[in-house]
Amino acid sequence: MSVDERMVHDIVQKVMANMQITGEVSGMHGVFKDMNAAVDASIEAQKKVRVMPLDQREKIISVIRKKVHENAEMLANMGVSETGMGNVGDKILKHHLTAEKTPGTEDITTTAWSGDRGLTLVEMGPFGVIGAITPATNPSETVICNCIGMLAGGNTVVFNPHPNAKKTTIFTINLINEASLEAGGPDNIAVTVEEPTMESSGIMMKHPAIHLLVATGGPGVVTAVLSSGKRAIGAGAGNPPVLVDETADIRKAARDIINGCTFDNNLPCIAEKEIVAADSIADELMHYMISENGCYLADREIQEKLVQTVLTPKGGLNRKCVGRSARTLLSMVGVEAGPEIRCIVFEGEKEHPLISEELMMPILGLVRVKSFEEGVETALWLEHGNRHSAHIHSKNVDHITAYAKALDTAILVKNGPSYAALGFGGEGYCTFTIASRTGEGLTSAQTFTKRRRCTMSDSLCIR
Ligand code: NAD
């Protein structure tokens, strides 16, 4: 750690410890003891946001962006410190990305028809108060993207975060409200509770003032919001395969795959989780991953030890291993790896538990296939019907097209690391809420609005 890193680390520890000692988070904007009180405050803030000019919403968003840039190190440190997952350097990059590339009010467009019978507009209006549930894996990143998009759409938002990330979330929500106040907006544009629980989540989901629910997390929470009887956006689990065929630039594919897979210790739901490789290039790909990209080749014994360590006897994830570095995981199975090691690789069948499970750890199994068709079938099986993300390295456009059609995912990265899909080293905007299951794809301000038709009969057409 450098002197600067040490200072940030110490500040983070002090802030977190202070939150613990008092047992409450006094002085923080947007934080309530009780979920009903939080929703009431959001309703009050919504009355002001609803009538706010777009220009004012944009002013608040620009202060949010500024504050996220300024606090990127702090937020990254808090997230890693509280959840024990991910790595600070990559989380800093993720925060700058959310500040720069999450769309604001410019994302909301109007459709118009004009003619002899007048003028009709379809404008995108706010839902009002939105209920959002956020994951432990990208805690502050998700809150920031959600807040920018939801506010741009004219909404306020009530969060029920993952309990393991509540302090990071509270810190972020305070920052968002400070930004609003600084830009002349209201307090409580984003709110939460001191102790998020399943009960507080239930109160939020059932509250009559909330008309839209947005869940970012695993299958349980997505099913919960889709069973609520309300409109819901479900950003669920993935298990993205990356297919490499014989036409790919194998050396580059190895580099891109390991960069994508190891980003924030494999926490992003879009990150490469397993490789499907054509038989003719599989050895070359493995060679470049090991010789040039810091990969540790796990033999059968180590694989078995990893299975015993990272999975529970029932086959679930050992939460203590999620989002840990390759070196930490290796040390858990008795291997002391050097600082150059970033990822654990091995070859196996698609049914291997370290391949078929969504691990969210830098462990990357390679499945060898005899033909492109077998590769597509294998990748489809590994994606488990989530239709979330899949990636490919190929120069054969027919292969790319066939793969994209068959996998039918919200995200498909071709010839790049997975994070290119988030606008990081790729075109397009950023979000950490990818609505795979309900079909909105990468969410943005427009996603959090409803279509409203406004018709003027027989006037205002000036053609
Ligand atoms: P998680 O499912 O354990 O928790 C997510 C959130 O849902 C938390 O706030 C949790 O408290 C809540 N929750 C869980 N079950 C619930 C239920 N039955 N009712 C109400 N709330 C419930 O997930 P996590 O470990 O925090 O995050 C990792 C998972 O989320 C992975 O599966 C990953 O793929 C997925 N994820 C998806 C996206 C996306 O954009 N599609 C983004 C991030 C993470």
Which descriptors apply to this entry?
18 strands, six-stranded parallel beta sheet, binds nicotinamide-adenine-dinucleotide, 16 helices, 463 residues, seven-stranded parallel beta sheet, globular, alpha/beta, 43% helix
Describe this entry's structure for a reader.
The structure is a single chain. With 463 residues, this protein is α/β, with parallel strands linked by helices. The chain is built from 16 helices and 18 strands. It has helices spanning 3-22, 35-50, 54-70, 72-83, 88-101, 139-152, 166-182, 198-206, 219-226, 250-262, 279-292, 300-310, 326-332, 353-356, 372-382, 397-407, and strands at 31-32, 111-115, 118-126, 129-134, 156-161, 190-193, 210-216, 231-235, 241-244, 274-278, 295-297, 343-347, 363-369, 389-393, 411-414, 434-435, 441-442, 449-457. A seven-stranded parallel sheet has the order 11-12-13-10-9-14-15, with helices on both faces. Strands 1-6-5-4-7-8 form a six-stranded parallel sheet, with helices on both faces. It starts with a helix and ends in a 6-residue tail after the last strand. The model has no long low-confidence stretch (mean pLDDT 96). Nicotinamide-adenine-dinucleotide (NAD) is lined by residues 133-138, 161-162, 198, 201, 216-218, 220-221, 224, 235-238, 269, 358, 432-434, 436. Residues 133-138, 161-162, 198, 201, 216-218, 220-221, 224, 235-238, 269, 358, 432-434, 436 line the site of nicotinamide-adenine-dinucleotide.
